[in-house]
Amino acid sequence: MHTNMIAEIEHKGGRIDKVYFCPDLEDESPNRKPNPGMGLQALKDFPEIDPARSIMVGNTLSDMQFGRNLGMHTIFLPTTRPDVDLNDERIDAVYASLFAFAADLKNHT
Q: What are the residue ranges spanned by the domains of the chain?
């Protein structure tokens, strides 16, 4: 799945430097969201990343907590979770879709 995703993104002119995933099922795993293990590993692998200037985009409150745990700005996409309270303190901004967020981001760069 990751190989196909990376190939398609590269075919369209994009780039993914590395994919992180957690195969662990235990909530106590440091790599299982919202625990910051995968993010900490990314910071180790790419020390030029500044979490305070980074964005976590996700569709669960666990994603938002993960971003908070690393000091990131959070973007919530209610695409599969329309029942989430959009006023939750872990959410910095809400976009209807990833496309809407990307379009807005493009307009601000």
A: 2-107
Residue with tokens 């990751």: 2
Cβ(91)–Cβ(72) below 8 Å: no
For the chain, give percent helix, strand, coil, nearest 5: 40, 10, 55
- Percentage of the chain modeled with pLDDT above 90: 89
At residue 82, the pLDDT reads: 83
Length of the chain: 109
pTM here is: 0.87
Asked if residue 52 lies in contact with residue 20, where contact means CB atoms within 8 angstroms, the answer is: no
Q: Could you name the CATH architecture of 2-107? A: 3-Layer(aba) Sandwich (3.40)
- Reading phi first (left if > 0) and then psi (alpha if -120 to 50, else beta), residue 69 is in alpha
How many Å apart are CA 88 and CA 5, to the nearest integer?
31
Q: pLDDT tens-digit profile of 49-75? A: 999 999 999 999 999 999 999 999 999
